[in-house]
Amino acid sequence: MVSLAMSTDHPLPSSSRDDERWEAVRRRDRAADGSFYYSVRTTGVYCRPSCAARLARRENVRFHATCADAERAGFRPCKRCRPNEPTLADRQASVVAKACRLIEEADEMPGLDALAESAGMSRFHFHRVFKAVAGVTPKAYADAHRARRVREELTQCGTVTEAIYGAGFNSSGRFYAAASDLLGMTPTEFRAGGNRAAIRFAVGECSLGSILVAATDKGVCAIRFGEDPDALLRDLQDRFPKAQLIGGDAAFEQLVARVVGFVEAPGQGLDLPLDLRGTAFQQRVWQALREIPAGTTASYAEIAERIGRPTAVRAVARACASNEIAVAIPCHRVVRTDGALSGYRWGVERKRALLERESAA
Questions:
Q1: What is the H or E stretch that residue 215 is in?
Q2: Angle between helix 138-154 and helix 112-119 axes, rounded to 10 deg
Q3: pLDDT tens for each residue of 137-146
C-alpha cells in the first residue's frame, strides 16, 4: 500500500502523492481508510476514501490528515461513511478481541450463543465475523488456546489428569481423543519429554551446510540447517529429551537425499507428508506459505491478507519464525513489503541462496 500520510491540511500543488490519494478515492480503497480524509467543497462534508457516496469532481476535493483538520476547515462528517467513528473493520476486530478474552479467561468454553449475545450479534453473524477476523472458528480458537494451556500444565502439574482439567477441558475422554493431533503424541509422552515417542532422523550435507531431517510415523516434523551436525542433533534431543531417537535407515536416508536434492535443484519440487505441530493460527500461516509458488515471494502483509487477518502482520512473522520445517514449509519465500530480505531462522544468506536458486530454476 502506498503511503498516504499528510503533514498539512492546506491544499497541495498537484503531485504524485495527491494523485495517489485521488486514485484511492476513485477506487474506494478501504486500505487507505484512516490514512487521510477528503472533503467536498460543494457539499460541505468530509469522508473516508472508501465512502460509497457519488464520486465528487476532482477540483472540488481537498485532502486532510485527520477528522479534526477537516472539521477545523469547516466540513462536517458524512452521514454515510461516518468518518469520525470507528470503521466496521475496527468494530468487528474489537468484538472478536473481546470474545477471545472471554474464551481465554473462562474455565469452560463459552457456548456460541453466549459469545454472540455478548457481542450483540446473532449466532450466525457472530460466527461469520469471528472466522473472518480471527481466521478460525470460535471452537478452533478455543481448542488451540486450551492446547497451549495443556502444554503449560503438563510441565507443571503432578498428573496428566490435573493438567487436562487445569487447562479447561471438562472431559478427559474428549481431550485424549484429540491429544495426538494437538501434541503429536500422547499427553503422558509429552509430559515425559517425548518418552517412548519414536522419531527417526538423519543428517546430510548440502551446499548450504549440514541439514537434519526428522520424522514421526505421521510425517516430517523437522528440517533444520546448521553448521555442525552434532549441534543439530543436540537441538533435536533438547526438544524431545526422552524421545526414542532412531538413526535413519537406508530408506529414510533416501528421504534426506530428496530434501538435499530439492535444496540444490528446487525445480524438481518437494512433496512430503508433514507432521505439523502448532496453533490453529500458525498452521493457517504455514499452509499459506506452502501455496507460494517456487520462484516467487510474498510479503508478511500479503500472507496476513490471504489468511483473512490483514492486521496480524507481526503474528504472521512470528509464525514464520516458529516454523521447524525448512524448505518444505517455505518461509524463505516471505520478504518485507519493500522486497528486502528480513530475518530467517537459519540465516539470511541461506534465505538469499534459496531464493536465487528458485528464481533461476
A1: strand 209-215
A2: 110
A3: 888 888 777 6
**b/e for 22-52, b at 16 or more Cβ within 10 A?**
bebbeebbebbbbbbbbbbeeeebbbbbbbe
pLDDT of 149 above 80: no
The pLDDT value recorded for residue 212 is 92
> Using an 8 Å Cβ cutoff, are 217 and 185 in contact?
no
Helix (H, G, I), strand (E, B), or coil: what is residue 343?
coil
Catalytic pick among 47, 78, 81, 320:
47
pTM for the structure as a whole: 0.51
Neighbouring-strand partners of residue 335: 299
Q: For residue 100, indicate whether it is catalytic.
A: no
Catalytic position from the list 78, 221, 320, 331: 331
Grid coordinates representing 105? 479467561
The CB density around residue 248, as the number of other CB atoms within 10 Å, is 18
Nearest to 318 by CA among 277, 355, 281: 281
